[in-house]
Amino acid sequence: MTRRTWTRNTNGLITNASGRTTAAGQRASKALDDMEAEGAAINFQSVAERGSVSPGFLYGSPELRQRIEAARARQTGRREIARVRLTRTDASFQVLLAAKERRIKHLDGEVRELTRQLALCRGQLYDRTQPLNPD
Length: 135
Hints:
5 helices; mainly alpha
């Protein structure tokens, strides 16, 4: 009995796979365009979620990878500007410090009062456990 080998016809598989790759690239590209238009935070994970593709697909696609890295670099500059605006001045630190000191003073007073009440309760409990006539 001779064994016969069949020639495999994989053209359909290859065509289907390349079509899915193209569709995934279009979805990712559209997601990236939409996110840039919205001003959303752009990173590989967020683009992958929005475009319904894997982060590995984005890292493996040179064109998409460059676009995402460029968008992230542009956003980093925006974050730096926002950080500068949010930095506190010495005056705001002084106000914050004064508020914290008032809060600490208030809490110290509460602790002292609660400690005094606890001592009274312990004294009353001690009085109840001791017999009145030690005869």
